């Protein structure tokens, strides 16, 4: 918000994004030109792995595959695009990136990715 002509891209996972979800509302409310690239696999792999490595068994929280970040973003007034294919991702980035510095509002790209079974 302090340098509106400077493009901002935030890349995060869907699990970690739930801890700062109010940022989407703020970005929409204050028309902050930021592109949120959310890699969505329906879980919080880092926390799951930490719970597993603690020796106390499976993580006590459920996965959240039924939550879409695009749905949450839109509910908070933040435009979103749900991306499910590589071609759609390339086309969306080709459309958004050239004018990113001029954006006067946020956009969430909710990119569907497969869970890494060996990690998460």
The coarse silhouette is globular
- Across the major sheet, the strand order is 1-2-4-3
Main pleated-sheet profile? 4 strands, parallel
Helix and strand composition category: alpha/beta
Task: Report how far apart the termini are.
Answer: 34 Å
Count of DSSP-assigned helices: 5
Report the portion of residues in β strands: 15-25%
Low-confidence stretches: none
User: C-alpha Rg, in Å?
Assistant: 16 Å
Element string (H = helix, E = strand): EHHEHHEHE
Overall number of strands: 4
Average pLDDT? 86
Helix content: 25-40%
Task: Report on this structure.
The structure is a single chain. With 120 residues, the chain is α/β, with parallel strands linked by helices. It contains 5 helices and 4 strands. The protein has helices at residues 14-17, 22-29, 45-53, 69-75, 86-96, and strands at 8-13, 34-40, 80-83, 107-112. Strands 1-2-4-3 form a 4-stranded parallel beta sheet, with helices on both faces. Helix 5 links the parallel strand 3 and strand 4 (107-112). The longest helix is centred in the C-terminal third of the chain and has 11 residues, at 86-96. It is globular and about 50 Å long. The chain starts with 7 loop residues before the first strand and ends in an 8-residue tail after the last strand.
